[in-house]
What does this fold into?
Amino acid sequence: MSAVPPLAVLLGDPAGVGPEMAARLLSNPDNLNRFPLFIVGDACVWEDAQRVAGVRIDTTIVRDIKDIRPVSGQVALLEIDALGGRLPERGQSTELAGRAAFLALERAIELVSAGQASGILFAPLNKHSLKLGGLEAEDELRHMQERFGVSEFVCEFNITDALWTSRVTSHVPLREVADHLSTEGVIEAINLIDDALRRSGLSEPRIAVCGLNPHAGDGGSIGREEIDLIGPAVSEAAARGLIASGPYPSDTVFIRARRGDFDAVVCMYHDQGQIAMKLMGFDHGVTLHGGLPVPVATSASGSAFDIAGKGVANVQGLQRAFDLCVRMASAPRSLQ
It folds into this structure.
């Protein structure tokens, strides 16, 4: 194998569009030969994925990563055999599909921890399937945070074209968002996205911070989180030399961001940023798991059960996620 640790590529939920997206991605010789990589998953899923995508990729199946030998135009698949050769029912969440996706993720985490992989690119997963298959954490990011032993703040970055977002809270019920907010949490979210943007090549990231309430609290008449928590965090970040401003009303800040006023927007909760970002570029958006020791990325689109197996899934987002993983894995420093 190459002296550079390869990238682990996961096929995603085997009942969704992930496998066919991975097949189309790796059918491009430029991708296959650009950076050392290998697939982690079930051989039967990979075979079916190529059939659905209408491609044929020269594949070597191995059971031990030490058996992988780089060959131009060829990909190695590290077999986990979670399915016993039996494909799960397509288009729905099942324990079988979720367990296969979860075990592939676990294997990739082990390889990263052992220094045998430089990052993880995964085709779309399905969180409900993962929970059925054994995931106990809030989501795959929190699971990886625990498995990698990361005690610092982590969050998902969502990226559409040149615009990035981070968020202070993630997969928690909306009624609990305010209770999860703190000045330190907002500062951590600002710091993390500033650091990631600098490592991606941007020297002076301009970061907008959303308010929580309508009209960013309207001077305290519609809530005080902006005055008591968010505003002080923005001031502290600016005092540390970051180009941070806000809090801004979330119903207008993305208009300014789209026209180029900001490089990133820090959101207070999941849908505050996700709705705007997906409207701006659902088909080519990227999700990057920030704060982990290596780059871990996927497309912003989901498992898309409704079109699974039809061979029509858009691969642009996964391509951009691959590009980002390669760029960051090639850099001398990690994301953490």
About this structure: The two ends are 26 Å apart (CA to CA).
